[in-house]
Amino acid sequence: MARARLHYRCRECGTATPRWAGRCGQCEEWNSIEEIPADPTGRPSRAAPVELAAMDGAGGELLPTGIDELDRVLGGGLVPSSVTLIAGEPGIGKSTLLLQMLAAMARQGRRTLLVSAEESPTQVRMRAMRLGLVDDGVWIAGDTDLAAIRSDVANLRPDVLVVDSVQTISDQESGLAPGAVTTVRACAQALADDAKSGGPAVVLVGHVTKDGSIAGPRVLEHLVDTVLSFEGERHHSLRLLRAVKHRFGAVGELGMWEMTGTGLQEVADGATFLLADRRPGMLGSVVFAGMDGRRPILVEIQALVSANSSPSPRRSAAGYDSGRLGQLLAVLDRWAGISLHDRDVYVSAAGGIRIDDPGADLAVAAAIASAYTQRAVPDDTVLLGEVGLGGELRQVGHSPRRLAEAGRIGFRRAVVPRGAAGAADVIDLTRGAAAADRPVTAGLRVTGASLLADALDLVLTGQAVGRPQLQVLAGRD
Ligand code: TYD
Ligand code: MG
């Protein structure tokens, strides 16, 4: 069967369709479908097929941004003529990060252009002065009409163009209102087309809100090469950058910054950063050997258990899934003799980080058990493992890397699911260069446990695995 030919195209969003319609099915614009002119000469297409092997080069060298955490996420730097979208909630620090990036790139001799719509050039300059970022090579434009941006780019020929934000570009030619989905999409498409035909690497800023009330980033995801998500809790200084989509490299790298009074400071050692406020010997405090994407991070999990005789005691989880907390409490009750029906339970991942990793279960359970039994988990111990409904411990991915990181920053003991390769093997694995790119500090003792109850015994009493000590302890409380 012959495939339907695409004879029509939407003027607004560029979607091609075989049939004419009064309204575009993609962007829902009315009267925007036009016929694609037929080509009666049968001349070859403008982009004639090329054999892959005969093509030269990889399309230009990367443009390192000069900010290591950003380059880590991008896999080395911006790709020339590519389009990157950086999405995040208003106020999270997108403008700050990009200003720092442009200054760092200018310092390497790149020519950069910032189109700033949300803040006037004067405001941007004031911020740059305050942050010590007034460098040659950073150009700024306050005109946010699409045509003006394109002509600025044509005149200045920058290596990098930042548009802050894509939701504020207008397109007077089309007469569409800034911020409307069609405008955002059409402007982004025009800039992407320019980039592709030898233009600058483009970085578009897109605001998102939790409830998705601002149009933008979602509708752009398919037309950009890279989507970065900049995240953080409003009342914490930690900021995380992740690649959600990346045509030129891996996703899953994590970049970490701290928002300070003088801009974003890179957090090169995420592990130490998140543990900085940890107090030794604290009840209900446990360190989880976590992983965010491909970056190992150590996170302090805290729990507080307090009496509450009302029929519905409180359960509160910050940075951890509350459904998962409920499940863990049921498992603790059923399989570890820790019954909390008459207690409030609060669990929190310290530092404003969100943990989606089921490998945190054991650490969360141990924090709760520690708070309940009033016994501290030794400070030099990290935990790792998923807890099954049968009270069993289950393996989690990347154990060697997680443990290597724990060993590197000085932890001495790890309790992991026994299934995670005969425990002792886990540590051997981490010594192999292939398994982890950091050397493990000798002396991290890894102990395996098959059951949650055994693991809790081990960390709360220091006893050998196998005897259910906790029932006794629980009775004292
Ligand atoms: P901003 O980069 O403007 O956020 P976005 O572009 O994502 O909307 O940064 C917003 C917040 O960051 C601002 O409310 C204050 C804070 N901030 C600092 O704490 N220190 C600084 O040096 C700067 C520049 C901003
Ligand atoms: Mg901004």
Question: Can you give a write-up of this model?
Answer:
The structure is a single chain. With 477 residues, this protein is of the alpha/beta class. 27% of the residues lie in helices and 23% in strands. It has 13 helices and 21 strands. The strands form 4 sheets. The protein has a 9-stranded mixed β-sheet with strand order 6-5-7-8-4-9-10-11-12, with helices on both faces. Strands 15-16-14-13-17-20-21 form a 7-stranded mixed β-sheet, sandwiched between helices. β11 and β12 form a beta hairpin. α9 crosses α12. It is elongated and about 80 Å long. It starts with 7 loop residues before the first strand and ends with a helix. It binds thymidine-5'-diphosphate (TYD) and magnesium ion. The site of magnesium ion has 4 residues, from α2.
Q: Please give the radius of gyration in angstroms.
A: 27 Å
Shape: elongated
Largest sheet: 9 strands, mixed
Q: Estimate percent helicity.
A: 25-40%
β-strand percent reads 15-25%
Structural class: alpha/beta
Number of strands: 21
Instruction: List segments where confidence is low: pLDDT < 50 over at least 5 consecutive residues.
Output: 421-441, 464-477
Strand order of the largest sheet: 6-5-7-8-4-9-10-11-12
- What hetero molecules are in the model? thymidine-5'-diphosphate, magnesium ion
**Termini distance?**
75 Å
Q: Report mean pLDDT, rounded to a whole number.
A: 84
**What is the count of DSSP helices, taking H or I runs of 4+ residues?**
13
